[in-house]
Amino acid sequence: MQQGNNRVAGASANGARPSTLSYFKWAFVVTFLGLALGTFLGWEMTRTVGGTLTIFFICAVLAVLEISLSFDNAIVNANKLKEMTPQWQHRFLTWGIVIAVFGMRIVFPLLIVVIAANIGPWQALVLAATQPEQYSEIMKSAHLPIAAFGGTFLMMVGLSFFFDHEKDVHWVKWLEDKMSRYATIRGIEVAIVLITVLIFSRFLGPVESQVFFSSAIWGLLTFLLVEIMGGLLDSSQQTLQAGAKGGLGAFLYLEVLDASFSFDGVIGAFALTHNLFVIAIGLGIGAMYVRSMTIMLVERGTLAEYRFLEHGAFYAIIALSVIMFVQPLVHIPEVVTGLGGATLIGISLWSSIRWNRHNPSHD
Description:
By secondary structure, the protein is mainly α. It contains 16 helices and no strands. This is DUF475 domain-containing protein.
């Protein structure tokens, strides 16, 4: 795995371009091990061939769900990762994936139950193993604050990309040109997010509205604090490498971003199964493919080659944030969320290909 990580920092030093499949080598290994573990778990749980095949199928479906929901996450990761120093690229692709798989897919759901049910971590783990239905109900009861927190953080991420006065490549030109010009207005993204939160909170009851609004404020504060910490931490590293933007601050930003993306997948997974360990296996497999896609996007320079691909990803992020705000009011199937993001990214890719054809001399 060390060799695969180092490719990002010093890609194609010998001029050879790795095949697409080579980027997914470790993802295939994890898929095999994960599905084998899921099969074993299914047999231990049910002692029937039918039950075992059901668990196997759920693990596979969860992996596909995670990939479909997180493709835009891979693009955003690649966007940030290309600015990071080689050392921090390697750390994100090793430590970061451990945190993503074990932290967000196992520890995070346990912490939600610990806080919501006011029980100890070990009790939460026992509850997940012995009473998965009750565990699932506790998780679902915490969906409102999670949706408000994650939706606010993701909306800030998406708007910050477009409200940038230095941004000169526009996909939806009539809209993005105005957003770029208005970016000089201090705090415009924050104002838009707060207005959106206030609008959605008015459709909830008094108690739910208070929970929604306070959780959204925490999401906004988290984004701002991560931005501040990123600036302070990374500025101290610029003496080590001229122009280096990516260090501990960027690492923390990507981890919080991954957490926000994971909220929807973790909650949605309970629609397929109540078993925390099956969910961890399925989503963990999907997370490895997101990591592999991130490496491929950075090494191949895909974001530079397809100029509107990032735009599609950030539009998908804003759409996901709105969906998270809507979910406390109306249930939206995860397949709609995944297909919506994939469609926006697909259209942006098609637009990029068309632009390249009409501008063949562009370097």
